[in-house]
Design brief:
binds adenosine-3',5'-cyclic-monophosphate; alpha+beta; 4-stranded antiparallel β-sheet
Length: 140
């Protein structure tokens, strides 16, 4: 087991419904510690760069519209195997396929408005954390 950090976003569908606390309760109950967190309104440029890997996908424009439609909460989560653990806590991308008790099964509205994002690898976690946080903002 390894102590890891991963990057998380509470998306606009969740902040709009005032679910930040509910998401954080599920993250903490799942064994993760929130070591950095801030509420921001992503710019178009930030959303397009953050999701650049998806720029050829048919949902890219709609995804960037959605991610800039309201505030998000960007977070750094710490814990044993935090990257895989967070993906278990979130559940499948499409809430219709997510396991019972996961954030997406419990709270998400659709495959796009799926309430949370979590890094998919250690390499991407490091890139995504550095995209939104300075090292001095991470307080373990
Ligand atoms: P996320 O884990 O943040 O990564 C990419 C996002 O694109 C995904 O969550 C969804 O919000 C959004 N998305 C919209 N449509 C799709 C799709 N068909 N497949 C995957 N992701 C999608």
């Amino acid at each position: 087991m390894a102590l890891e950090r991963t990057f998380s976003i509470i998306k606009p569908d969740a902040t709009r419904r005032n679910l930040t606390g509910k998401v954080n309760t599920l993250l903490e109950a799942g064994g993760l510690r929130i070591v950095a967190q801030k509420r921001i309104h992503m710019s178009r440029a930030q959303a397009e760069a953050f999701y650049g890997v998806h720029k050829e996908r048919p949902f890219f424009k709609s995804l960037c519209d959605f991610m800039t439609s309201g505030p998000v909460v960007v977070q750094v989560l710490e814990g044993e195997n935090a990257i895989a653990r967070n993906r278990e806590i979130m559940g499948a991308t499409n809430p219709a396929n997510a396991a019972e008790g996961t954030i997406r099964k419990t709270l998400a509205e659709s495959i796009e408005a799926n309430s949370v994002h979590g890094s998919d690898s250690a390499e991407n976690a490091a890139i995504e954390i550095a995209y939104f946080f300075a090292g001095t903002e991470l307080v373990g």
